[in-house]
Amino acid sequence: MTQGTLETADRLAGIHGLRAIAALTVVLFHVHGIHKLDVPQAFSMIKSHFGLGVQLFFVLSAFSLFFSTQHRVGKPQWIQDYFIRRFFRIAPLFYMMIVVWYGLAWLDFNQRLPVHDVLLNFLFLFNLVPEKHDSVVWAGWTIGVEMLFYAILPVLLVYIITIRRALVLLVVGATITTAARMAYDSSGQLSIQAYGHHSFLSQVGIFCAGVLSYFLYWRRDAYAWLKDYPIFYDGLSLVGLLLIVLLLVLPTGSLILFGRFDILVWAFAFALLTSGQAVRPWKMIANRYLYFAGERSFSLYLLHPLIIYKLGPVYLKIYSLFGQHIGVAFIGCVFVTLIVLIPAAAACYRLIELPGMAMGRWLIQRNRNASVQSLSVKGSILEKASVV
């Protein structure tokens, strides 16, 4: 591994750590939520706030996509290459999970999923259809949101090139999200209100906060005083963390309450924490354990609802063993879940995600070779023509 690669890995260690934290908070949220497990009052934050790990994912996704793609803008075939990378990063595992949940619906629930529902999922269009937005894959609604953001990202990469434009984008995105949530919430229809929390328009401001976090990171070399005082980024992390703590202590209801607007404040807090950890990662976040989980966070996310669902009888047994000690019982359920989930995620990452990414790289290289060969042939023809 070259020194440059080492520097890149070190710089992003904090991002991997935050990605792991996002995945694990969602896991705990669903360990409680899927089976409606009793938790003590001390754990009430899990059912009210840990679902916000999804919004942290969205912020990290926008940051990471700008980080990995901005330097490619303007190069030959960069848009085509970008879409190939995104498709092969997401589709292989997601398609596998569609098949798994189709089979599970048939075997466990005696339900045949409609063909058009499955087709919407394979085409990544389900978020555009209210009442279909949740995906046939449990917790898969986020993939529908992500894919729509992927679709508009090339435009953002071309036009959002300064921190000022990123701030304008955040204002526009926050306005769209606020207006969308107000419209969905005022519909009076429960199904539309539910869609209002999961629709792309309701989440677009979250991604815009992630774009701003990238430009806060990107400008680290633009100002001499930032080079002299890199502790500034520790300050960003600290302010983001303090804002999170403040939001936690303020009285609020469940994340699923429709029309919540404080989700944008959460996104801003996550953006500050993300940019700070990208430059000055803390060891409590940037360690090898969270780095490992962060690399496998996509598998952790897509696999965990299935594993939690299947572990239901085990959870009931644990709760019966511990009786009134529901806090200990819940911790036991989380422990059992992670024992099963982490090896399964590691296997999926190795057997499905990595080969999928390798296939994307192979296709990109093949297209480049074909392009070079085509140009060479055209050059030869022109050269012969000029001789004649």
Coarse structural class:
mainly alpha
Q: What share of the residues does DSSP label as strand, in percent?
A: under 5%
User: How many DSSP H or I helices?
Assistant: 17
Mean pLDDT: 90
State the helical fraction. over 70%
- According to DSSP, the number of beta strands is 0
Number of domain units:
1
Poorly predicted segments: 1-10
The biggest beta sheet is recorded as: none
Global geometry: globular
Distance between the termini: 51 Å
If you compute it from the alpha carbons, what radius of gyration comes out, rounded to the nearest whole angstrom?
Answer: 23 Å
Topology as a string of helices (H) and strands (E): HHHHHHHHHHHHHHHHH
Q: Could you explain how this protein is built, in words?
A:
This protein is mainly alpha-helical and 388 residues long. It has one domain. Helices cover 77% and strands 0% of the residues. The protein is built from 17 helices and no strands. The protein has helices at residues 3-11, 13-33, 44-49, 53-69, 78-109, 115-122, 141-159, 163-185, 190-198, 200-218, 224-228, 231-249, 262-279, 288-295, 297-310, 312-322, 326-387.
